[in-house]
């Protein structure tokens, strides 16, 4: 469970043309917003999402100056802000945007207000705000960076779902094209948090869905001369949008540059596999992360070939496949899954392939981020034998 700090009409136009977003009437916050620096305790390094500590729509590259440096095995607390509510087509003013939905000014995050007021993104950049980069002492290309998500705390009792840029799965269909979205309130029910949204102009016709917060973007810097867009995921991780990366999961990323220079962003309260309209329920999170390094020698000794980003989460081994073609993304994911089963459980490749067909799931992570994503779900408990390599031990102990 994540912690907290204890009939629709169209919006008006502000500044640039604003995307249509249905207004929720009578909004009552389920909990106060978690402002920067509030509730910080312990010895973990704290990194706020202030304008000097974020990139907007671009990802860190080799040679970028880190906002902090941590030793392997140390924890860091990172604030993230959502791009929803601060984009130009929403007026670039989160106080005004969320105020139209009944959110008081003091219940809008100060860091979101400051980023919107002081930072700009280029027209070819993605929408996401990423906090970082964060250097990890001793991490080198060829190593694996292991990022454990220890805790995710909701920073606001609301969020936004949207479709725009003709990027949703049905964007070419009349009636589903255009730019529009929905403000969603958070409410507590039977000890759990739910998102709520109207489904019709009749206010009684609503839907609610359970919240399972995760970070859509977790990545390492690219070995490139320029900062790449935050939209497509890749070998660096980035916008992989895997809903299984909730608190307790560990993501393993191949280090691309010295000191890794990792970053996080694109916080979500909930997402369906596929993320078909374009966004999840976008909303800000505070993340407590523990970062470790698996040396290149252990990676080489434990894997027959590179497999890209993968994760261990709640009893599951989670391989990924990424490609502009969804069918190829699935093929890559299956190949990576075979390699992980062979390497971590001393399996025969053909037997691993047959096992995956009978017992594993392969899901569309997202189909809207230029590069499509597929992730597998392999139950660790299914295997009676584990490989004796250091890599197998360090991966499987986190599942």
Automatic annotation (TrEMBL):
SUPFAM superfamilies noted in UniProt: Acetamidase/Formamidase-like
Name listed for the protein in its UniProt record: Acetamidase
Residues spanning the membrane: none
Pfam family, one: FmdA_AmdA
PANTHER family: FORMAMIDASE C869.04-RELATED
Molecular-function GO terms, alphabetical: hydrolase activity, acting on carbon-nitrogen (but not peptide) bonds, in linear amides
